[in-house]
């Protein structure tokens, strides 16, 4: 639910999963055939996992990080993993790059530029759930364009501050 001032978008688990399914349908409707999925950890892991299952394609993972300060609300320097984790082989052919959102666009743009330099990748397209109007990079596929560029409160953020002791209290009888 988008707040009246357009500054915050609150997403429930049910909404989140429906948006991922809508993303899968957008990719499918395009008719584009791809060989592998590369998701960006952490935000792209859940959408990447679902798309990997729906399309029955192998899932590779690349770790990136730029949001660290202030409980993950302040963007800092972009760190990209040197290696991509895959079950077998190399990242090659037609690759679908998946993340949760195009926020500033810095991460997606940097990853796309890096991957375009990989000779084994013949075609690369990107897919996200949300694309913000302020993003410097527009993905090939997205479910929602967010004109007000709100801060997105995703359902799994409840775990950001939950530690094992707090979790244990949840199940204490």
From TrEMBL:
Residue ranges of domain Phosphoribosyltransferase in the record: 12-159
Top-level taxon in the UniProt lineage: Bacteria
Name by which UniProt lists this protein: Phosphoribosyltransferase
Alphabetical list of InterPro entries matching this protein: PRTase-like, PRTase_dom
Keyword field: Glycosyltransferase, Transferase
MF GO annotations: glycosyltransferase activity
Pfam (any one): Pribosyltran
Keyword Transferase: yes
